[in-house]
Amino acid sequence: MRIGIPAETRAGETRVAATPEIVKKLAAKHQVVVQAGAGVAASVVDEAYVAAGATIGSAADAFGCDVVLKVRAPDAGERALMKQGAVLIGMLNPFDAENTAAMAASGLTAFALEAVPRITRAQSMDVLSSQANIAGYKAVMVAANTYQRFMPMLMTAAGTVKAARVLIMGVGVAGLQAIATAKRLGAVIEASDVRPPVKEQVESLGAKFIDVPYLTDEEKEIAQGAGGYARAMPADWMRRQAELVHERAKLADIIITTALIPGRPAPVLISEDTVKAMKPGSVIVDLAVEQGGNCPLSELNKTVVKHGVSIVGEPNLATLVAADASALYARNVLDFLKLVIDKDENLVIDREDEILKATLVCAGGDVLRK
Ligand code: NAD
């Protein structure tokens, strides 16, 4: 079987879907074609792929394979290079109906890895977790870089410097890593989330949880989330959360927001009034900016200063840690690939498999999942 690794062409995308570590495993049984320069932005040179057993080719060579491994969905020109019935694996955005329809029309058998269910068997394929972990780490690095003061408390002959106060909004995979990273830098941390189990996780990392009590059974029920993801909370709970967060934000030096609701715009958690109440020189890093932002003042792909507060709207922070982001992503992809390749190394797609069923967005010209 021929497995292709094209270069990513979307603006700002630095990752690559397979690293030499993974290519070596695949090349033992298959022909692997890597597009020239595909790994350069992730610190992987073509020679490393060749040493791992791949051949280097053109975009047409890589896209023309039986199985194509990608980070982001191919564009129209790239789809045109693919074979009818080719298997495509990547972060294909299952919520983008137009893109799914286009992939179906190209006759692709496409798997969107963001839709991997949150079950134990699928943990090693969970690209959202592997990339969110990196984004959470990098968010703190970006914030520290933008912030004009120290993160740790310092006692020097020239006087004492206070530790930075960091507020984390949304404590899933990215938020937990952001807490751990800010803690290592010596910050004092508070955090908020809707899901009840998060309180204990936050406290175990040495941060303070901002408790917004559930006043009704409905609030408690919605807060549990579904399938490991949050649901949109009732307006009254959101109002009470906003009031508490407003007070905590006034004291914060850095706010990192990561709150997402799958398939919906990101919830607004830091209003313009709250930004106005923050200290001059404070920093907000809005990881949800691509989904509309947790702060309405954040702007995609820009760092803006509003009411004296720097607001970073970098959409995909994992791309700024391209080498490790690619390494983890490629391992996720390899584990997924094992589900569609049988012991004789042939492609076999078991439509009843829970993971394949959840991720298969189109096949045989049909859209299977919106
Ligand atoms: P996510 O990226 O979808 O959302 C980020 C966080 O924002 C979540 O914690 C969510 O609860 C929170 N959020 C949503 N609305 C909010 C609001 N109004 N205020 C504050 N916070 C809000 O979430 P994620 O990082 O992908 O993961 C969520 C959970 O799933 C984590 O606890 C993670 O450990 C778990 N998980 C489980 C598995 C598994 O069991 N296989 C795999 C991956 C993740």
Structural class: alpha/beta
| Reported CATH architecture of the largest domain | 3-Layer(aba) Sandwich
C-alpha termini separation:
29 Å
Number of helical runs? 13
CATH superfamily heading of the largest domain: NAD(P)-binding Rossmann-like Domain
Question: What does the overall shape look like?
Answer: globular
What percent of the residues sit in helical stretches (DSSP H or I)?
25-40%
Ligands, ions, cofactors: nicotinamide-adenine-dinucleotide
Q: Give the DSSP E fraction (strand runs of 2 or more residues).
A: 15-25%
Radius of gyration: 22 Å
The mean pLDDT is: 96
Question: What is the CATH topology of the largest domain?
Answer: Rossmann fold
Write down the domain tally.
Answer: 2
Instruction: Output the strand order for the largest sheet.
Output: 3-2-1-4-5-6-16-17
> What top-tier CATH class of the largest domain fits best?
Alpha Beta
| Tally of strands | 17
Protein name: proton-translocating NAD(P)(+) transhydrogenase
GO molecular function, one term: oxidoreductase activity
Domain Alanine dehydrogenase/pyridine nucleotide transhydrogenase N-terminal: 4-135
Domain Alanine dehydrogenase/pyridine nucleotide transhydrogenase NAD(H)-binding: 144-313
